[in-house]
Design goal:
The chain has 469 residues and is α/β, with parallel strands linked by helices. It is built from eleven helices and 23 strands. It has two domains: 295 residues, Zn peptidases (Aminopeptidase); 136 residues, Roll (Aminopeptidase i, Domain 2). α3 crosses α11 and α6 packs across α11. The structure holds manganese (II) ion (2 copies). The site of one manganese (II) ion has 6 residues, from α6.
Amino acid sequence: MSENKEKSKAKLLQEKLCSERKNAALKMSKDDEWKCDDFCSGYKKFLDAAKTEREAVEYAVEAAKKAGFIPFEKNMDLKPGDKVYRVNREKAVILAVIGSSPIEEGVHIAAAHIDSPRLDLKQHPLYESEELAYFKTHYYGGIKKYQWAAIPLSLHGVIVRADGSKVKVSVGEDECDPVFCVTDLLPHLAQEQMKRTASEIIKGEELNILIGSRPFKDDEVSERVKLGIMEILNEKYGITEDDFISAELEAVPAFKARDIGFDRGLIGAYGHDDRVCAYTAFEALLDIKEIPAKTAVTVLTDKEETGSDGNTGLKSAYLKFFIADLAQCLGSDCRTVLSSSECLSADVNAAFDPTFPDVVEKRNAAFVNYGVVVTKFTGSRGKSGTSDASAEFVGRVRMLMDKNGIFWQTGELGKVDLGGGGTVAAYIANLNVDTIDVGVPVLCMHAPYEIVAKADVYMTYKAFHAFLS
Ligand code: MN
Ligand code: MN
């Protein structure tokens, strides 16, 4: 008896003093479960509708307009509750809801990226070989190249014609559309190929997309399959071969987002990284019910997967310029506003994969279904290239989560010496903004088909909503 009593005292003390990690799906109420599944049906529709940065911007602008957002203009009259947006070159967008407190007290920013790893077409993509037509590609972002062979691909983007007019392309998403494919070698003849290292099983110059096979019926010319393809493209898009030079065409997996598992707890899709944080951060802004104290800003940016360089990535000044223009409208200046602002860098983290346990340190890894992940720092080895959030800011984020009943966890991307990765956090922190990474844990990150848990998606939405509201 006394031993039992002693144990229970220890248990009580343990509960009080020691941290315990718990499956969020276990703790969710019935009501939360229902809301979670409903939210995720909307997310799946977004995944299928917006597979590229341009399509994500289009989707966001359309939804924002319906929610009463108007284009932001310099020196416009703004008052608390006003909703504005500014698009950057059709590939990034900033949206804001003006808060009630003075702008010099800072803004709350949620920043996610809407570009995902993919195969870009080269500027001279089209060729014929042995009476088959192909597109040459140049992969974008960090991929395991072999994963991109022998899967159905769709093609998205824009072509600017010689006269400067622009035509949109989206082929392979509709059930009636054709799809495209990078071919791979049959195992029977792959003995030599299988001796290559995994990074070269399919080489960059072997990521050639098969796009046609029917020759143009004429004996006079050579490359008749290519001619047949050009005839189709000319009819459909009014283009000639030279127009590919001024095109941005992206081949992405043609898969639709689907539930995974008998219990439907997970979602499989292309490009959860980082459209899962883009959607949650965007919806959180749209769902702001009352005028927020701090002005709420959601940034959906481009080029994160290639290092955030270029005028549509977050190393560009476009966010700073927006804040400067916003500050001016409200009678303040950019440096004052940024210096007192806070940012959730909304990006995914690696989820612990029981099949590959050795790459992470389990005590500090993120788990599927354990809720939204807060990542204090990213970078690699000795925290190289990181923005390490201060204990004070982590403390504020922690209180925000707990106060709003959000299930959350911390997570580090893999073992210390192993690898690592970065997000846009460092570039926003460099503007003198308190910044921390917050997002969804993902299985098979950067594969053509990535996996997230619905509970984590919903908790991430709730986290952004609490932060922005
Ligand atoms: Mn990402
Ligand atoms: Mn990524």
